[in-house]
């Protein structure tokens, strides 16, 4: 399996752990605010093969406490599950970032004890989901299934929303709140612009708007927080 990026150490990507972050190419969404746009069509060059990654992880035993897998969308393909099995065999807990479009694979890794923490994006209210993902239309059923699966609580998890003036308003957070009511954790993340974001013109909400959105979210998820 091709590995499209490796951050050798991070204190931010895996809650409570010194981890490395593995980037996998390809995604089934086209979010116009994506920070990893060069990865989403799968054409970015690989930086290493799977064996090289595993050799790196073997060497870092005792130094790293976990492996965060991100993308792109890591659950786009079955061989991510094999990669996770191999990382678990080395003794590392795995954290996964996902957009929730592949609940069957998410179920498989939870059932198999392959993942310790899942961070799933909730892009927007159901009404504005496709638009926020950069898609003309989309079937939200798989995303809904992933939400329900995580809320069963068989693995630790968080939901998170990257928040922009152009795509979110108070109604977005009322609708999201109704959807994920009672979730364990929910983070509102302020959009930050970068050169790699494919579309220009997005803006982070002002601080008072973020606080307003947080207050709405907390009516449904008391553990909601602003991150970043
Ligand atoms: S789901 Fe994530 S990786 Fe895929 S396009 Fe959206 S932000 Fe980028």
Protein model, in words:
The chain is α/β, with parallel strands linked by helices and 228 residues long. 32% of the residues lie in helices and 21% in strands. It has an eight-stranded mixed β-sheet with strand order 2-3-5-6-7-8-9-10, with helices on one face. It has a two-stranded antiparallel sheet with strand order 1-4. Helix 8 (207-220) links the parallel strand 9 and strand 10. Helix 4 (103-111) runs parallel beside helix 6 and helix 7 runs parallel beside helix 8. It starts with a strand and ends with a strand. Iron/sulfur cluster binds next to loops.
Write down the overall mean pLDDT. 96
Main beta sheet, described? 8 strands, mixed
Morphology: globular
The largest sheet has its strands arranged as 2-3-5-6-7-8-9-10
Q: Bin the helical content.
A: 25-40%
What is the distance, rounded to the nearest whole angstrom, between the alpha carbons of the first and last residues?
A: 32 Å
Low-confidence runs: none
Estimated radius of gyration: 17 Å
β-strand percent reads: 15-25%
Query: Bound compounds, please?
Result: iron/sulfur cluster
Number of strands: 10
Q: Pairing-aware structural class of the strands and helices? A: alpha/beta
* SSE string: EEEHEHEHEHEHHEHEHE
Count of separate DSSP helical elements:
8
């Amino acid at each position: 399996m091709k590995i499209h990026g490796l951050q050798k150490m991070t204190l931010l990507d895996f809650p409570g752990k010194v981890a490395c972050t593995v980037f996998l190419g390809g995604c089934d969404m086209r979010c116009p605010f994506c920070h990893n746009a060069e990865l989403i069509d799968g054409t970015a060059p690989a930086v290493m093969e799977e064996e090289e990654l595993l050799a790196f992880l073997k060497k870092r035993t005792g130094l790293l406490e976990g492996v965060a897998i991100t993308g792109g969308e890591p659950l786009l393909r079955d061989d991510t599950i094999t990669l996770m099995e191999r990382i678990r065999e080395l003794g590392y807990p795995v954290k996964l970032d996902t957009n929730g479009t592949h609940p069957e694979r998410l179920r498989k890794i939870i059932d198999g004890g392959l993942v310790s923490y899942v961070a799933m994006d909730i892009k927007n209210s159901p009404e504005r989901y496709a638009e926020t993902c950069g898609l003309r239309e989309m079937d939200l059923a798989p995303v809904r299934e992933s939400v329900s699966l995580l809320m069963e609580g068989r693995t630790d998890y968080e939901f998170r929303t990257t928040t922009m003036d152009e795509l979110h308003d108070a109604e977005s957070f009322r609708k999201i709140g109704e959807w994920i009511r009672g979730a364990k954790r929910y983070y509102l993340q302020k959009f930050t612009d970068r050169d790699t974001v494919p579309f220009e013109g997005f803006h982070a909400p002002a601080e008072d708007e973020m606080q307003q959105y947080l207050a709405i979210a907390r009516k449904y998820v008391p553990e909601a927080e602003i991150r970043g």
